Amino acid sequence: MDRMRLNLFTMNAVTHVSPGAWRYPGDRAADYTDREYWTEVARTAERGGFDAVFFADVRGIYDVYDGERETAIERAVQTPSNDPRFLIPAMAEVTDDLGFAVTRSTTYNHPYELAREFSTLDHLTDGRVAFNIVTSYLESAARNLGVGERLDHDDRYDRAAEFMEVCYALWEDSWDDDAVKRDREAGVFTDPNGVHTIDHDGEWFSVAGPHGAEPSPQRTPFLYQAGSSDRGREFAAHNAEAVFCSYPTKEGVRGYVEDMRERAADHGRDPDSLGFYPGVVPVVGETEELAAAKHESYRENVDVEATLALLSGFMDMDLSELDPDQPLEHIETEAIQGAVNAFTSADPDREWTVREVAQFAGLGSTSPVVVGTPEAVADELEAWYRDLPIAGFNVKEVTRPDSLVDFVDLVVPELRERGLVADADADTLRERAGGEGPRLPNDHPARR
Ligand SMILES: Cc1cc2nc3c(=O)[nH]c(=O)nc-3n(CC(O)[C@H](O)[C@H](O)COP(=O)(O)O)c2cc1C
């Protein structure tokens, strides 16, 4: 069996997906503005055998709940937040192998600029960077970025598809492998015959090229996606190398993974080349009692109001208007379909009231909390790993950095002992994640 891959899922913000946890005694989430906080996270994740630190990122404010932004601002619901990109060089400097996945939006960026950003980060990290491709979901973001109303959900995916075509052309086709000569004597840095325009003229973008940056170790950064609407799944099946899926139950994950593997095959790709990373929220203690007590104190600290504000933004549904004891009904949302599906269609055997959703989602939003001793948590992760065709897990935090430190010091040694977590012999993040080389595989549409 292959090695179980671990990513840390976090955010350059006070709150990511556990609203209220920043108030917990000793919690350091409020130090997110300190470089030293993040270099310590990087060291800990590397020590724990993690493949990557995965940064969520959003634009806009969570103002769907109760039709106003006060709750989100007061309770630090993903605002304030800083740009994750600028943390990467500092975190790369203190690590050798750890990768960094950065969330960037195809709706609010330009592909020429974004391609250069990732080439730069890939150079600076020696090939340890990944792009989490998102289409963005908050209406308030559209108002900030000068596009008036938010684009419709499916239009955002149309734009994303063309966005990626432009990026692939810049990353993969614009500079030949041997274009850069660095020949001091001849005075030739780059052979102009090895550098090509891309001449893209599409519905959304017009980009002549050539790419401004020379080829980086991976060329195209390792590609993540987390879409879960029909369009989102099609996009992921075409473009992604790793998929982040977040459902409260194993059955929810199973349904998603099976569907996505079929879609990947329909897109002419090897389903085994697509890595699945369900989210998980470990709460671990040396004994069962300690773990249970920790879980209880975490639950007491959940900020329910802030959780509802977060979820209302994810779902584009004002949860303040619903009867807390009514089951959450399935809707097709303009925001994150996966967040709705997690509590409606993903697991037909489970019905969720709004109150239950709010209580559950306060610790890690749509992912399961696994509570117990190091052995018990490792048992549960191992069971998922053996039972489902998944690459590993995106580990979500409650308290910071204690959730990570607990996991690394208590659970990882147990996983290592079982041979599940092992050091990888890999130079780039793509190879660490299972790729055969630093470059996109040949069956990826960008290489065909
Ligand atoms: C687990 C998970 C994590 C996500 N993280 C982010 C994020 O950090 N930033 C963001 O803008 N969108 C994020 N998204 C949203 C998307 O990846 C996607 O753009 C959005 O869900 C719309 O697509 P969909 O309706 O197909 O799901 C996340 C979605 C999921 C399911």
From TrEMBL:
Superkingdom assignment? Archaea
Sequence segments annotated as region (Disordered): 426-448
Enzyme Commission code(s) on record:
1.-.-.-
What Pfam families does the record point to? Bac_luciferase
Under the heading InterPro entries, the entry gives: Diverse_substr_monoxygenases (IPR051260), Luciferase-like_dom (IPR011251), Luciferase-like_sf (IPR036661), NTA_MOA (IPR016215)
Which keywords has UniProt assigned to this entry?
Flavoprotein, FMN, Monooxygenase, Oxidoreductase
Protein transport is among the record's keywords: no
Segments forming domain Luciferase-like: 33-388
Keyword Cell membrane on entry: no
Which terms does the record give in the GO molecular function aspect?
A: monooxygenase activity
User: According to its UniProt record, which protein family does this protein belong to?
Assistant: Belongs to the NtaA/SnaA/DszA monooxygenase family.
Q: What is this protein called?
A: LLM class flavin-dependent oxidoreductase
